[in-house]
Design a protein that fits this description.
Chain lengths: ~230, ~600
């Protein structure tokens, strides 16, 4: 497992650095310049992160192996496919969460308690990171058997658009919060309007953890099937 | 000739698919949109292709260029072409020309159709003439990218990064403003002639980009240059372009006044005015809604007064003062010209208010800014009454030695030997100060004849007499410079006081400033205050919907008058008060004490 993680780190670390640099620099420039309110710039950074990071990380893990023709070699190693998937999932989680944490740190360093309190800033980034992770799990699971990165990127983009549209429909006071929590974007519903049946953070986290487990198990089964 | 025709036929055969797809999109979508409008909205058919073409025309040209290059240069086909008895340049240039012709046809034809069937204003002739230069430049950039990278997705991403720079860098970088494609539509608006200096600059700039990138493409094919593009290059190129644009905009408009101190104010309040009485002691008015404090109801605004002190440990904000009167608020708003304090009693303020009913009755009142003392009660001292007249001027207060002068349509002179009991000496009509305007080349102001008042103060009174009713600070006079706010947007005009006599003041033009396009996007043109001190002009612009309000500082002292030297952005900024030494107090949702602007040589 450690060697698998090392391999993933070796291949994906540049993406982590890239994400950290882009999001942190945007947050730094935006907050230093103060052209727009702090909350606006932090929301831009969060939206960019939660939209791009899951696509970037999910397409670069398993579909990239298929694309390069290295998946067969990987599956031929004396490790279970589930281990391979776990290493890739950890790597993807790091790719999604790392840049968001870096951007949050920069935001706090530049503008803590300036227009937004530290707690509000941290909560914004926590919710956005959880959204990015939920989207990543969906994209990671559904692209596990796709043969090329390009197809995986298209599917991931479609999935993002689908959930965006579905979430707009879910923002309605008549929809029970537990149903809203099915959407990976339910973590940020809270920021839209608390009166519109948005689930609490814990409820959304619980539902999304269940969905993520199911998706992950389904993906591992697909991978095992593929290996046969 | 036959060989060239064959090459053209081959290229046309391979590229025509782009033409049909492009025309389908750019003619089909507006047609569907027109039908939708016809049946669903205004029951009027209108063919609007220009929004689609302007937004996606460049992207389409990019796809065509990448498609035509990567098809023949991407694999073994290049070797095949090199083995044929055809000059490389010949088939390469044919490829360029056919692809460009298809791109331009797809972009120009829908706009011609729109111009033919719909309003001609929607597609001005100048835009129709200039946009092809823009598309040619974008096509050439993508063509060069295809020749260098030779992998469609990677070449497209690289070209997209350059497209972002070509689109947005001229917006953010003032020296490149001439290449700004947005101005082709926005600034020209209607047909104003194609051969203007701006239009020629734009066309030339785009032609230079196109020529340079075509030369690069030729070199890349001739010398087999190739960029080994991977994911890192793709992501890096687009992100770098994005960051360059954001950083350039941040550099141009970003806050660069250092915050020395800051103080929170109650959440429901906003600073709307800051005054400086000479002893580091300030009074601030707030706009505020809710809460059972004493207030003056001014429509949607409720106003409160607080004392303020600057100390080593920070800004100290006092409690709201217990009683207010509407006349004082009216005058506080216009405090720069309607209030005055005796230097020996800085907390005691004289002000004029109009007790309006059927006619305007001007009264002089006294108020103390000391929260420990009660306000002076009563209606104040009657100065004069006049019928309401749209041309009547708001009075201006000037103070000299033990005399107080109220200069409006009448001149009231008061004895303030006893500062809390002013005595009215005389009220006489005074001729309006006249201006002999020829603003672009200079002008002359005839000073009001006020016996005993120095000419500098009479000039000040004359200038403030023209201040607008709602924004009394739309013009400032300080250190022999007069700056006026112009329209539209933030446009400043400065004049230098050339000569001041007992009779008149002569002003010569000094410079003008017009905000850049980027400033127009991020800054509202609504100016709330303009004030000047020690040669630095502070202009407050209130925010639009998405951007912060901001203070822009101009330096009038150097050889480039009206050069912006500093910015400060923050939520709900409404007031600024310059202090000695270049510092300033800025008020909005908080109070900030900021340091002097950075020195630029």
């Amino acid at each position: 497992m450690r060697k698998l993680l090392w391999k993933e780190w070796n291949e994906q670390s540049w993406k982590l650095g890239f994400g950290c640099i882009v999001l942190s620099t945007l947050a730094f420039i935006g907050l230093r310049a103060r052209i727009v309110p702090d909350e606006t710039i932090e929301m831009y950074v969060c939206f960019l992160g939660l939209a791009l990071l899951p696509i970037l990380s999910s397409t670069g893990l398993i579909p990239a192996e298929h694309d390069d023709g290295t998946m067969e070699s990987l599956l031929a190693l004396p490790v279970t496919p589930r281990c391979i998937l776990a290493a890739k999932t950890i790597s993807g989680i790091l790719l999604c969460a790392g840049p968001m944490i870096a951007a949050a740190a920069v935001s706090l360093a530049v503008a803590a308690n300036r227009e937004m309190t530290v707690a509000a800033t941290i909560m914004l980034y926590v919710r956005s990171t959880l959204t990015a992770l939920s989207l990543f799990i969906w994209m990671h699971a559904l692209t596990v058997r796709l043969p090329t990165e390009a197809r995986a990127a298209l599917l991931a983009l479609g999935l993002l658009i689908l959930w965006l549209i579905a979430s707009i429909g879910l923002v309605n006071s008549r929809v029970p919060p537990i149903v809203v929590a099915i959407s990976p974007l339910s973590f940020i519903h809270y920021g839209i309007d608390t009166n519109l049946g948005a689930p609490s953070l814990l409820a959304a986290l619980g539902v999304q953890l269940c969905i993520a487990t199911v998706l992950w198990l389904w993906a591992s089964r697909s991978l095992i099937k593929g290996s046969h | 000739m036959k060989q060239l025709a064959s090459l053209f036929w081959k290229e046309w055969h391979e590229t025509r698919l782009f033409l049909w797809i492009g025309l389908g999109v750019f003619l089909g979508l507006p047609w569907v949109g027109g039908l939708e409008a016809l049946f669903q909205y205004d029951h009027h058919y209108e063919f609007l292709a220009s929004p689609w073409v302007i937004i996606f025309g460049g992207v389409f040209a990019l796809f065509v260029a990448v498609g035509v290059t990567c098809r023949d240069l991407g694999g073994q086909l290049e070797e095949f072409w090199r083995s044929r008895p055809v000059g490389v340049m010949r088939w390469f240039l044919v490829k360029y020309v056919v692809g460009l012709a298809v791109s331009l046809a797809v972009c120009v034809l829908p706009m011609l159709v729109e111009r033919w069937f719909s309003s001609k204003d929607a597609v001005p002739l100048v835009a129709l003439a200039l946009m092809p230069f823009h598309w040619t430049a974008l096509y050439s950039v993508a063509f060069a990218s295809g020749c260098l990278v030779r992998r469609p997705a990677h070449a497209a991403m690289l070209a997209l990064a350059v497209l972002l720079l070509i689109h947005f860098l001229p917006l953010a970088l003032p020296p490149l403003n001439g290449l700004n494609v947005i101005e082709v539509f926005d600034s020209y608006g209607v047909d104003r002639g194609v051969f203007t200096a701006r239009a020629i600059t734009f066309a030339l700039g785009m032609a230079v980009i196109a020529t340079a990138t075509l030369a690069l493409s030729i070199a890349a094919v001739r010398y087999r240059w190739r960029v080994d593009a991977g994911q890192r290059l793709m992501y890096g190129a687009v992100s770098a372009a994005l960051l360059i644009i954001v950083a350039t905009a941040g550099y141009q408009l970003g806050t660069n006044l250092p915050i020395l101190q800051q103080a929170a104010i109650p959440e429901t309040e906003r600073v709307s005015r800051i005054a400086y009485d000479g002893k580091q002691d300030f009074v601030i008015t707030h706009q505020w809604i809710g809460e059972p404090y004493p207030y003056i109801d001014r429509g949607n605004w409720k106003v409160r007064f607080r004392s303020l002190a600057l100390a080593q440990e920070g800004i100290r904000l006092g409690d709201p003062q217990p009683a207010l009167d509407p006349g004082y608020w009216n005058n506080w708003w216009q405090q720069s010209r309607l209030t005055a304090s005796v230097p020996a009693h800085p907390r005691q303020v004289y002000y004029v208010y109009d007790d309006s009913d059927s006619q305007i009755e001007y009264r002089l009142a006294i108020r103390t800014t000391d929260p420990t003392q009660p306000f002076v009660k009563g209606r104040g001292l009657k100065l004069w009454a006049e019928n309401y007249n749209s041309s009547s001027r708001r009075p201006v207060i000037q103070l000299w030695e033990n005399r107080l002068y109220v200069i409006g349509d009448q001149l009231a002179i008061l004895d303030i030997t006893d500062p809390i009991a002013p005595q009215l000496i005389s009220v006489v009509p005074v001729p309006q100060p006249s201006i002999v305007p020829d603003e672009p080349v200079g002008f002359l102001i005839n000073l009001p004849r006020v016996p005993g008042l120095p000419k500098e103060q009479r000039l000040n009174a004359a200038i403030h007499a023209w201040g607008s009713w709602y924004f009394p600070d739309d013009r400032v006079l300080c250190q022999n410079a007069w700056v006026r706010h112009g329209d539209p947007g933030l446009q400043l005009i400065a004049w230098h006081l050339e000569k001041l006599t007992d009779e008149a003041a002569t002003f010569e033009p000094m410079g003008t400033y017009k905000q850049t396009l980027l400033e127009e996007i991020f800054e509202s043109s609504s100016m709330s205050q303009m004030t000047m001190r020690d040669g630095l002009l502070y202009v407050v612009q209130t925010h639009g919907q998405y951007a912060n309000s901001r203070v822009t500082v101009f330096d009038l002292r150097g050889i480039h008058p009206l050069r912006p030297v500093a910015h400060f952005g923050g939520p709900d900024i409404w007031a600024v008060c310059p202090l000695p030494g270049g510092r300033a107090l800025i008020g909005g949702s908080q109070l900030w004490l900021v340091g002097p602007p950075p020195t630029r040589n």
